[in-house]
TrEMBL record:
Superkingdom: Bacteria
Organism placement in taxonomy: Bacteria, Bacillati, Actinomycetota, Actinomycetes, Geodermatophilales
Protein name: Dolichol-phosphate mannosyltransferase
Region named Disordered: 1-24
Organism for this UniProt entry: Geodermatophilus aquaeductus
PANTHER family, sorted: DOLICHOL-PHOSPHATE MANNOSYLTRANSFERASE SUBUNIT 1
Length: 410
């Protein structure tokens, strides 16, 4: 039996339509021996921006990996260098059909996600496989990723599941940002993302066209997979892989990606975090009111802050049960266990906040109630992540658990 490429482990398509937010570019360059999209089993969509040095090795390795399969490669190119010409040169002798959709100026809508959406619209295959053009996604894994999608809706190559490895990220900072963004996405979408996908930030995945409605996507920024997961209820299989080092060219990651991610999260279904914030804001008012009442009754501000914290912690738990996490209360934790975890974390968090409260009041002479409000606001994200990921963690579907066991040793 042939060895499996890289590392492997777990986690649809009517005729293509153009997205409202990703209009068909006016100028389309077609290369290779294809003059129009032709029905094939799989279209490998490769969004590129100034990746001319990686085109030839990528196409060569894909040609070997996909030999004997019904597949094509579609570059969706936003480059300002010679990448389109390099694709044309390579396509002339490639082992499989290669096309390029070159977008210019205001045609470059939606960033990388918009490029992927344009590629989906320009293909008519049964399956669409998306990968980066910088060789950090191993082409040799493409056939397995495609085959993994046969009996599910979406197959995802994960850097964090099973034997996955994210060491190809160029710095510790990027790894922290990637892990933090993943945790936030899973917390905001515990059912559609959290319970089925360990790496919603990856750009290496394959989906069945019939399972994904392109008109529901609002491509922006870099994270098109997160859009797909958050807007559809999909069966997902994950295959762990090693995220390789960049071979040539420069990384396109920058602080702007963080801004785009924040914008994308706000544009997606943020109802849970919004409700959590509303409950937290009401809890803050309760906290401050109780603290003010206790201070007026003669208690010191530290004792008053502790008493107010206990009241607001219980208040927030009861409202979260009713209005924020009602739909995910069927997870593995019972009501009493959720209450115990909620109390334990929030009391620990209150103890951590207390020294900062004292510092603000005693050293910087900030009004006690204002200092309390500041510390509560700073701790908001930590509370949301813990409550979403631990207290109300969803029960993993049985089919997903079976998938995990099947691939645990691969």
């Amino acid at each position: 039996m042939a060895a499996r490429p890289a590392r492997y482990r777990p986690a649809q398509n009517r005729p293509a339509q153009h997205l409202p937010s990703a209009p068909q570019p006016r100028r389309v360059v077609v290369t290779g021996n294809r003059v129009a999209p032709t029905a094939v089993d799989t279209t490998v969509v490769v969004p590129t921006f100034n990746e001319s040095a990686n085109v030839a090795p990528l196409v060569e390795r894909l040609g070997v990996a996909l030999r004997g399969r019904s597949a094509e490669v579609l570059f969706v190119d936003d480059s300002t260098d010679g990448t389109p010409a390099e694709v044309a040169r390579v396509a002339a002798t490639a082992d499989l059909p290669v096309r390029v959709l070159h977008r210019e100026g205001d045609e470059r809508v939606g960033g990388l996600a918009g490029a992927v959406s344009a590629g989906i619209a320009a293909s008519d295959s049964d399956f669409v496989l998306v990968m980066d053009g910088d060789l950090q996604h191993p082409p040799e894994m493409v056939p397995e990723l495609r085959d993994a999608a046969d009996d599910v809706d979406l197959a995802v190559a994960s850097r964090y599941g099973g034997g996955g490895d994210s060491s190809g990220l160029s710095s510790v900072y990027r790894r922290w940002v990637s892990s933090g963004s993943t945790a936030l996405a899973q917390a905001c979408f515990p059912r559609r993302v959290g319970r089925v996908c360990t790496d919603p930030m990856t750009g290496f995945f394959c989906f069945r066209r019939s399972a994904v409605d392109p008109s529901r996507l609002r491509p922006r920024g870099f994270k098109i997979l997160l859009e797909i997961l958050a807007r559809h209820d999909l069966r997902v299989r994950e295959l762990p892989f090693t995220f390789a080092d960049r071979v040539a060219g420069e990384s396109k990651a920058s602080w702007r990606n963080g801004v785009q991610f924040a914008y994308q999260m706000l544009g997606l279904r943020m109802g849970r975090m919004t409700r959590f914030a509303a409950v937290g804001a009401l809890g803050t008012l309760v906290n401050l009111a109780v603290m003010a009442l206790l201070v007026r009754s003669g208690a010191g501000y530290v004792a008053a802050a502790v008493g107010a914290a206990e009241v607001s912690i219980l208040h927030n738990f009861l409202l979260q049960e009713r209005f924020v996490f009602r739909d995910v209360r069927d997870g593995p934790n019972s009501w009493s266990r959720r209450l115990a975890q909620h109390l334990a974390f929030n009391n620990a968090e209150a103890l951590v906040r207390l020294p900062f409260l004292v510092l603000l009041v005693e050293t910087w002479h900030v009004w006690a109630l204002l200092a309390q409000a500041v510390t509560l606001a700073v701790a908001f994200v930590a509370r949301f992540l813990f409550v979403s990921r631990v207290v109300y963690r969803p029960r993993r579907p049985r089919w997903a658990a079976r998938t995990t066991r099947q691939h645990a040793e691969v």
